[in-house]
Every structure is written in structure tokens, then in C-alpha cells.
């Protein structure tokens, strides 16, 4: 028999904007109440946004979060939702430090709260820096269903609060999350939740943040899984969404335990809630998208939110006619609309004819703003006065382009986009203060081989819909070149990108050593050369603009290498 | 009666360079042995350098560290130091993860090892990300003295391994450290060590790293304190140094405990060691320098090591005639010698006459390389082609200068120095890709008021020695201006720097909120304006070059704020 209607509110908070986030929580609760939900669950730190980073250490911000929570409870009551059970993540602070907390709000007040127990401190997470771990279980019983509250990492680590809840006695776990997107992560999340649901013999409702925050993008993809591994509902990725799931009274509930060693237990029994939706809600099961569609969604969402949340309305970029800038421009069109995209072709004396025509072709297919600013005069001014040749002359071209874009940004308020990809960034094939100029680098974390896949996927998906494919085929097919000297090609000094990306995947994403990579079948001299380039480029990468993270390990806060670093793994070259 | 001669080897390791660090450890051990030392103690992670950051997560690097440790033991024996007890920090790794470890080497092998127990995860430290905590005490007895080994944070936190050693029974603690410099830290360290020595009733020998590593600079200042709070010896700051201290047999040793709950104990009793220096060593007590001298030493060391450890031999910078670039140039002269410093005066149409004459005067006083490259033609090229005015025209001047410096760097291999100070960086008064250009920003963490203090101190210390003061008096005395438009002065849009720095100190270094700062007596409108500027500049600061950290909280890994951030503390302005 149906006991409860549950709503998972997958919302897009703005870090720090307590007023806007509160208003959104009220709005989504009203919507959920209208749909008959008794329990509305919001993501981890939905009230403050995630991650707040060092704001967590500012007492005035923690106090403001706690105050905003109290005001939220009042606002929910005033909005006519006082009879709904609202579970919301926020920042708390007590004598032991700041807390990554979840509050259960009902009848205009906080009835119980839970502090996250397992604090991830790896990859992009620094929670041991910010939060004190909790040791109290919060169990809310309503209509005969005992709901336990956990936060994100709590279900990833063995032990901790999940088995403690099972011992204490719960019929369902509500798990609040801020789990960033990366390729393949969606399936890993469902798999870990299924395992825990089976272990504790109770369903798990998993609600995730959606939206971009600096280099992170959260994909949502909230879901509910049963103890038998079945999926009771699943939200789409990259959009705000309300997932409605009806929950039955437990057939044979585990009894309550009087105590659980190492934990205190806060049990709250609420008055019976009316179940208004007597007809069982149809399970909503969003389709699972292809890798390219998921990554594209992440890149579009990451860029859109970075632009809008930072108060920009338009972007500018150099459109070279090559694949990277074309893909970045296509992402920008999908994120912001073509009228917000300002592309500049900046030919030099070394630019090929197709550079400009391919750029023009992209602009005419997509309707973005397009202008041509030749850089020959500017370059000549430096070359002549300073007598530049070689690398200095190559770099000055890229830098003149960067300055043109920044001047347009200063004049018209565009955010400049850097168009570099992960592969070239890894090996240092970018000019600092040149093509690395920009406030955001959309494909910073996309390996070159995936850039091509995305271009083909985006064109095909347009064609499938009967739309014009945005990216000129010759931008996809021509051999990549920086065009900083006559006849220059990327392959002059790099292996082909499939091989390069495979080596980078091992070295950068998986911390493999030189010997491991060579043992996997790659040529030792090629590996040593690439590793040398990666190690030498740490400084450039530190100064590169942030960009949306889509792989398992991105350059940025995710991978923190010393700049001054005498370690040369490939010194083992002699030993192979 | 003298039982042992102890040597604290305050050395300057290079992160990752296991071969060079091993060789240095052997060399300093030979020197200590020559001085009659029985026990030679090296700093925390002296073998790998500190901090190794994500290198700690690379299994191949941890394996190389362990292998290098074994080879070091052999090398020490071969160098005739097998009979010395050598304590050295290194990176270990086992099934639980990586370890911040200390090994005790004697007779060509590792006789016992200790894993750091307390792992700092705040400010610049991320050790919970990298290391598993240890729970084993390592006690080495020689000549009747029981030596316990701890690492850095172990003495900062109450509880942990220090009281466990006291219970187990030790006569002295050897504490290996990598404690970065900040103003006033030296005294705090001695005070915490004195407190712990008193608590456990045994002396503590504290050996610290010296030298620069990216944004960190380690000052050394190693010491030994007795249980009565007395100082038995103290090393100078910012130089490699061997501190020799003779240790008596304990008068009334605490008995050994059979066990200590929560800890395992590894006890090693070594054969008697010969005490060769029968005459007691004179206590060496380095003088404690003034704040300005300490900060200057940190800045010089930080720059020198960044330049040399990264393989550069010279630096280039724009010399504007103002105080900031003059101080940076003076630091560079002290760090690298005047022949390695290449200064460029880059006058624009808005530059005052004294800009160039003051720059020339600095160059003639110090003997650095000096050239003049007017930027008027370059600026005109952009202004004319792109029709620039206002902010875009101001910024293009700074950017043309940045490009000139980078072109010289590409041509001659100089490392470019950015000359911005902490105050202007905090409020966003710098041009990205303009005056922010450079590979290192020596005074990035020096507030403007301290920049003036340092200039006066440096000139006075030269005069006191009978040398020519390097910095022209008019560079110190003139009102600060960016000279990007006619008659522009910093005070047009900022309060005076003493007030600005006092507000920044509270907001940036101490995480105070708007209300707290206003309550301390500052004008609410001024505070709100400054906080708004700081919050708006997060993006620029992320792209700024690294620089030596000298205050309690620097922009960089020390302070990690979200870029996209809707929190506006000064929204409370209405409530005041």
C-alpha cells in the first residue's frame, strides 16, 4: 500500500547566494506539494551551493547559512508547505568546526538534522579541510516509514553511517549529493547505491545537484533504487527536475535498535501525512545518453552557468578554422544562443586560406557574430622593434590575438573563451598570454581525440534532426596545425592524437609510471618524450583558465603537482 | 655527563630530485661526523623534498623513494658513516596508502621507522589527501639516551604521538619538520616546542627545511629546547646549517612503559657510540632578525630557489620607477646578482619623466642591465585598428609591456617577474596579461605598506654597511600611480594603503566578516567597497603567477575561494 509520495528536487544552486537558493527551494517545494509529494528532498548543501570552498571557514558565512535555514523554514510554512517534510543540505557550524549538514524541516521549523560523516578528501574534494565529521543518526518516521538521512560520500565508503542506520532500523535512506559529472560516473553511482540498498535491505533515494560551478559541473541524474537492485525512477542529466516516486509501507520492517555503538540517534515521529495522490505515479525513467551526448551536455551546462552566474551575457573567441575553436563555438551557441557569440578571425601572414574560409563557413551556418581582424601590423610592430625570430616570433602572433580578444572584451563586456584542449595543454602546446588567454576554457579537459568525436556527434545529431550541421567538414578533416610558421603541423613533434591521448590517459588520469606505460606496449622513446613535455608544462597549466571537468582527472584542483619538481620518472628509460 | 653529540642538518632539498637529495644527505652526514656527531637529523621528507603534492599518489614515485632510502643507507655506510645514527624523512607507501615517514639509518640499513601521526589539512597543507596516519612509536636507545621520532604537526596538536612517547619512556624527541615561513611563525614554533618539552619532561630537537618550493619558503631556524624552556641551540634562517648540540645522559630517566594503549612500540637499542667531542660544544644561538630582515630573507630565498631550481639563470622585469618594481629588482639583485637582472623601462605617452629617470637611477646604483623600449607605437597599432578608448586603452598599455617582456624572455631565456603587491592584487588593481605577466611574482604576498617598510629597511641596511642604498628615494616618496591615464593616482579610488591593508588583513588573512570589520572601527562604506573589490577579483588572482608566501594567508593554495560566488557579506551593510 502506498505510504508516501517522495519528490527529489534536482536544482541548480548558486554558491553563496543564500537568498536565491532559498527562494528556489520554496518554489520547488510548492511545485512538489502541488504534485502531492509528502517528502521533498534537495541536494547536498542546496542552500549554500557546493562547493563553498574556503567560505566554509568564514564564521560570518556559516552564521548566515544557519540564519537562512531558519528563515527558509518560516518561508516554507508561509508558502503553504508547512505540512510537507523538506530535507535540505546547508552549512552549519559548532564548537568542533563547520559541518556539511542536512536539515529536516516541517511545520515551519527544523525538526532534526544530520551531519555528514564521511568527508571525501581526494581528487576535487577537500572536505577534511572544511568539515568536522558527524556521529548522529537522524531518523524521521512518517506514515509508518522510517527515513534515514545521509550525505553523498556516506554511501561511497564502507562502514560509517549507512550500516549504522541499518542497525538502528530504517525503511529508506535519503541520500543528498553534490557529485560532479565525469565520463561513466553516472553508472558507477547507481551501482554503489544498488549495492548499499541491497546491504541494508532498504531503498535509497539519491538526489544530486545539477549545474556548473567553476570547473565542476553536476549532472543531476537523480534516482531511487530498491533493495532488489530495481530502479524506481531516474531524472535526466543537466536540467533541473522533480522526480516523483511513490513509496509503499514496508512489508516486514526491521525492528528499531535501542542503541548503535559509536552513534547517537535522533528519532522523530511525525503525525500522519495525507497521501493525496491515490493513483500511483508512473515511474519516470530518463533515458541514459551516449558518452558524446553526456559530455556535450556537461560542456554546454558548464559554460552556460559560468557565463550567466558570473554576470556575463556574451562570449568572444578566436575562430581559426580549426577543429578546437569550431567545437568551442558550437558549445557556446548551444549554451548561449548564436547572438551571444562573437567570433574573430585573426589571420597572420602564415595563415592558410582555408583558415578564414572555414571560420566564415562556421559563422554563416550558425549565425554568430563574425569579424576579421588581421594581426600582421601588430605582429610587425613587435618583430621590428624587438628584432624577433623563431619561438619569440611564433608566440607574438598568438599573443597579438589574445590582446585583440581582451580589447574586445574590455570594450563590449564579452567573456573571452580559450579554445585549447586537454591533449595540447598536457604537453604544453599552447602559448601563455596567447591562445591561453580567456576567462573560461570550455574544452580544457577534453582530449583531442574526443574533440573530434564530439564534432562528428554534434554534426550528426543536427543532421538527424534535419538541422544544418554547425561544424564545416573541412575543419574536422584537415590535419591539425597551429599555423605559427609555414607548413607547421602538430604531427611534426607529436605522435598521432590517438596514441598521445592513450599515453596521457595513463600518466595523467591514472598516475601510472613510465615503466607501467611502456609495459602496456607503448614505445619507450615516445613515452619518455611525452612525459617530459607533461612534466615541463606544469607552470603553464597553473595559469590556464578554468574549464569544465569531464574526465576522471583534470588539470586544476583535481591534480596538484609541484611546479619546481626534479622527479623524472623516465629516468628509468635506461632500465627498460 | 655528555652522552651524545647531536647534529641538526638544516638542508635545502629539491622536490622530486631523489638523487641530488640523497647526495646532499650523505655530504652533510660526512660533515656532521667530522664534527663528532653521533646522531644526525634531517628534516621532514628531506629525501623527496616537501611538499611533493600529488606525486605522493604516484606509486612509481613512492617506490622510487623507498628504493632511494635503501640506497642512501648503503651510500652512508660506504662514505664511512655507518656508525652514525641518521634520521631522515621520506615518502613510504603500504597497503593503507602513502606515508609521511622518518627512517632511522645505522650500519647501512634502516633500523626503525616512524609514520607521521597528525596530518595537517588546513591553509597550505593537504596531508589528509595524501597520507595515512601512523600509530607506531619508534624509540632508539643509544648511550643510555632513548630518542623518540616525531614529525612536524605531531607536536602542534594536543594528544597524538607526543604524550604517547612520554608514556612509553623517552629522554629526547627528535622532531623533523617542513614548516613554511610566515611573519612571526619562528617564535610560535619555539613556543609550542617549549610547551611540549615541558609537558613530557624531555628536550625536543627541532630540525626544519630551508629553501624555496613554489609559493612556499622554508626558513630553517632549527633549534633544541630543554624541558625547562631553555634554548640549547638555534640555527640561522634561510641558509643551510649544521647545528651541533651535546646531550647529557638523563639524570633521572622515566621508566619504560610496557605498552601504550592505541600504539605499537618499536624499541631499538644500539651499541654504545663513541663520543668523540669530549669538549662540550659551545651552544650556537643565531640572532633573531627584525621582521623586515626576516621577510627580505624569505623573499630573496624564495626567488633564488624558484629561479635556480627551475633551471633559469636570469630574470627580466619592467622597471617603472615606482616602488613595487624597484623593490622586486632589489630582491632580484640580492637573490641572483646584478648581472642576472634585466630591467626594461617601457614608457608610454602617459608616463611621467621621473618614471624613466628613477628607473635609470636604480639601474645605475645597482649595475643591473637596463634598456628602454617605448611602447607608444605598439599601443597605437591596437588603439587605431580597434578604436580603443577608456579601460580598453588603459589595459592595452599594460599588455604591450607584458608582451615585450615575454618576447625578451623567449629570446634570451629570462624568467619574467611580475611586480604586483598583495594589496593591489587583493582589490584587483592589476591587468591580467599585462602587469600580471610573469613566471614568478616575488612580492605577491607583501602588502603595500610592508613594501615601503622593506624599501626603507633595505636602503638603511645598505647605508649602515657603507654601501649605496639601491632604491632611489623618490621611488619611495612619490605618490603611487599606475600612469595609465593622465594624472592618475592610486588614491583616486582607494583609501590610503595603511587603512586598506588593515581592512585586508582582517578580511583576507583572518576571515573576518563585514560586521566584525566595521565593529573594529572602520568606515562601513569603505569596508563594503573594498570587500566588493576583493570578491570580484577572485578570477584574476587565480591566474596570477605564484609568489613567495610571507603573511599568514596568501592568495593561492592557502586561500581557496570559489570564483562563481553569490555571497556578498556586505549585504549586511543595511543592518549596521
Automatic annotation (TrEMBL), chains A, B:
Keywords: ATP-binding, Ligase, NAD, Nucleotide-binding
InterPro entries: C-N_Hydrolase, C-N_Hydrolase_sf, Gln-dep_NAD_synthase, NAD/GMP_synthase, NAD_synthase, Nitrilase/CN_hydratase_CS, Rossmann-like_a/b/a_fold
Amino-acid positions noted as binding ATP in the UniProt annotation, renumbered to this chain: 318-325, 419
Active site: 44 (proton acceptor), 44 (proton acceptor), 116 (for glutaminase activity), 152 (nucleophile)
Amino-acid positions noted as binding deamido-NAD(+) in the UniProt annotation, renumbered to this chain: 395, 424, 540
CDD domains (alphabetical): GAT_Gln-NAD-synth, NAD_synthase
Residues bound to L-glutamine: 122, 179, 185
Reactions catalysed: deamido-NAD(+) + L-glutamine + ATP + H2O = L-glutamate + AMP + diphosphate + NAD(+) + H(+)
Domain CN hydrolase: 4-249
MF (Gene Ontology): NAD+ synthase (glutamine-hydrolyzing) activity
Pathway listed: Cofactor biosynthesis; NAD(+) biosynthesis; NAD(+) from deamido-NAD(+) (L-Gln route): step 1/1
UniProt xrefs under Pfam families: CN_hydrolase (PF00795), NAD_synthase (PF02540)
EC number(s) given by UniProt: 6.3.5.1
Source domain of life: Bacteria
Region of interest called Disordered, as start-end residue ranges on this chain: 463-490
Gene3D superfamilies (alphabetical): Carbon-nitrogen hydrolase, HUPs
Function: Catalyzes the ATP-dependent amidation of deamido-NAD to form NAD. Uses L-glutamine as a nitrogen source.
Protein family according to the UniProt entry: In the C-terminal section; belongs to the NAD synthetase family.
NCBIfam families: nadE (TIGR00552), PRK13981.1 (NF010588)
Annotated protein name in UniProt: Glutamine-dependent NAD(+) synthetase
Organism field: Rhodococcus navarretei
Name of the gene: nadE
